[in-house]
């Protein structure tokens, strides 16, 4: 059996991954031993800019058990331009340190997109003919025609000034007609200059509005109007087996975005992107995703955004056909915070706990809730009156069966949201109203 690693979609920045220097400068590291894995972003990691994501363990106030689902990785996806050899990285950006998985990646030639667009403030909308099965073309062709104008290549330079080629590249998605775009945190993390390149070659300098390492989401802005914004869909309305189409800019290749087709393979995936970093609640798809696609779009069969591609599974023999995306509901919550505050304000319940297993009639053990082992002082939980020994059964109307699920549930809410938590205390159920507070920096 081949060793399996989890990693970002390769280097969106052909050369830089979420948390490491350009792949072309990565030292050789032998393949991971059997049974180990790591997660890699959709672009090569830049080891010089290794990103660190912090996620709670099951005994951590941020709630979440440690699962042996992968091993380190977590570089931002960036790719250089030029030809060379790179090593696959774990989080859509690349493999971290001793957990690097050997791999080869194309280095693009000149990354410069050319043209000075600093003085351009108005963009003429690209008129396209929307195809349907009735008017001609397949469903995927119709979706591609609709979504392609909203997908861009994001080029990143480590130093500002001059007209040098990009150090790495990733993907981005237009979410407003007046210049807001979303991408991955690891794509722009540590960048001095960011440029946005459309399929027709139009290039704009971009400003980073805010970036969140915890969810790997970033918001950037360009000085343009009349853009084609992607239609926002819902991952919550999807089912396993539903069509999923990935659109991004792998390897920063010229000529426009690439389109690949697959299905939604699973929900609520948890992947470990480094020894201390994990992503929760991800969508899984078999739509082929590769380096440079980090920050791209995962859409449904109507062209509606259901996720932002973030990581891929990679083994010692190459990609394993497992791609991961941050669900659009979480993306838009983070985007709202970044746009309003310049940073993401994460809601915090404030408990430490473990999954409760009960025995079913047939003798099987079934996850049935979360046992509170400790309540953090001055937290939402303590203010609401939660106590050690309480069993959390429901969070804002959604049944809670595991600690990991509770972590994901909380991350879909904003600071200040009022929710009802159903608990079991001394064998009796009761509903406790909770107002979520902001997550402390030290947890």
Major beta-sheet overview: 6 strands, antiparallel, barrel
Mean residue pLDDT: 74
Note poorly predicted spans: 1-38, 42-137
- What's the number of domains? 2
Gross CATH architecture of the largest domain: Beta Barrel
Distance between the termini: 38 Å
Describe the structure in your own words:
This protein has about 450 residues and is mostly beta strands. It folds into 2 domains: about 10-345, Thrombin, subunit H, CATH 2.40.10.120; about 345-440, Pdz3 Domain (Roll), CATH 2.30.42.10. The protein has helices spanning about 140-145, 185-190, 330-340, 380-385, 405-410, and strands spanning about 5-10, 40, 150-155, 170-175, 180-185, 195, 205-210, 215-220, 230, 245-250, 260-270, 280-285, 295-300, 305-315, 320-325, 345-350, 350-360, 365-375, 390-395, 400, 420-425, 430-435, 435-440. The strands form 4 sheets. Strands 10-11-12-15-14-13 form a 6-stranded antiparallel β-barrel. Strands 3-4-5-8-7-6 form a 6-stranded antiparallel β-barrel. The two termini are about 40 Å apart.
Features:
443 residues, globular, 34% strand, Pdz3 Domain
Gist of the model:
With 443 residues, this protein is mainly beta. The protein contains five helices and 23 strands.
Record the SSE blueprint.
Blueprint: E1 4-8, E2 39-40, H1 139-147, E3 151-157, E4 168-174, E5 180-183, H2 185-188, E6 193-197, E7 203-212, E8 217-222, E9 231-232, E10 243-248, E11 258-272, E12 278-285, E13 297-299, E14 304-315, E15 318-327, H3 328-341, E16 347-348, E17 351-359, E18 365-375, H4 380-384, E19 391-395, E20 398-399, H5 403-411, E21 418-425, E22 428-435, E23 437-438
Parallel strand pairs: 9-14
Antiparallel strand pairs: 1-14, 2-14, 3-4, 3-6, 4-5, 5-8, 6-7, 7-8, 10-11, 10-13, 11-12, 12-15, 13-14, 14-15, 16-23, 17-18, 18-19, 19-20, 19-21, 21-22
């Amino acid at each position: 059996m081949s060793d399996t690693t989890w990693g970002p979609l390769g280097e969106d920045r052909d050369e830089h991954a979420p948390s490491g220097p350009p792949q072309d400068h990565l030292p050789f590291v032998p393949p991971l031993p059997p049974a180990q894995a790591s997660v890699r972003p959709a672009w090569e990691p830049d080891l010089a800019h290794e990103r660190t994501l912090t996620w709670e363990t099951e005994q951590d106030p941020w709630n979440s058990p440690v699962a042996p689902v992968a091993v380190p990785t977590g570089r931002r996806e960036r790719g250089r331009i030029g030809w060379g050899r790179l090593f696959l990285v774990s989080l859509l950006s690349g493999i971290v340190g001793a957990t690097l998985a050997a791999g080869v990646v194309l280095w693009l030639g000149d990354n410069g997109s050319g043209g000075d667009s600093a003085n351009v403030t108005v963009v003429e909308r690209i008129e396209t003919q929307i195809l349907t099965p009735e008017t001609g073309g397949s469903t995927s062709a119709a979706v591609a025609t609709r979504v392609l104008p909203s997908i861009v290549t994001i080029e990143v330079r480590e130093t500002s000034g001059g007209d040098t080629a990009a150090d790495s590249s990733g993907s981005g998605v237009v979410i407003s007609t007046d210049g807001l775009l979303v991408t991955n945190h690891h794509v722009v993390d540590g960048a001095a200059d960011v440029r946005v390149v459309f399929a027709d070659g139009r290039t704009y300098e971009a400003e980073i509005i805010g970036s969140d390492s915890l969810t790997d989401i970033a918001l950037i802005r360009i000085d343009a109007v009349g853009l084609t914004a992607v239609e926002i869909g819902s991952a919550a309305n999807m089912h396993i087996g539903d069509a999923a189409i990935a659109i991004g800019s792998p390897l920063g290749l010229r000529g426009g975005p690439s389109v690949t087709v697959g299905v939604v393979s699973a929900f609520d995936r948890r992947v470990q992107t480094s020894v201390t970093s994990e992503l929760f609640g991800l969508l899984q798809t078999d739509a082929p995703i590769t380096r440079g696609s980090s920050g791209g779009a995962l859409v449904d069969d109507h062209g509606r955004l259901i996720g932002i591609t973030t990581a891929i599974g990679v083994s010692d023999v190459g990609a394993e056909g497992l791609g991961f995306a941050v669900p659009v509901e979480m993306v838009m919550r983070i985007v709202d915070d970044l746009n309003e505050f310049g940073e993401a304000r994460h809601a915090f319940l404030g408990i430490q706990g473990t999954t409760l297993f009960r025995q079913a009639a047939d003798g099987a053990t079934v996850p049935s809730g979360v046992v509170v082992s400790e309540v953090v002082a001055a937290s939402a939980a303590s203010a609401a009156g939660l106590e050690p020994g309480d069993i959390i059964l429901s969070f804002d109307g959604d049944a809670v069966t595991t600690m990991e699920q509770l972590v994901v549930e909380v991350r879909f809410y904003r600071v200040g949201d009022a929710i009802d938590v159903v608990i079991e205390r001394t064998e009796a159920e009761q509903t406790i109203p909770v107002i979520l507070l902001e997550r402390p920096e030290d947890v």
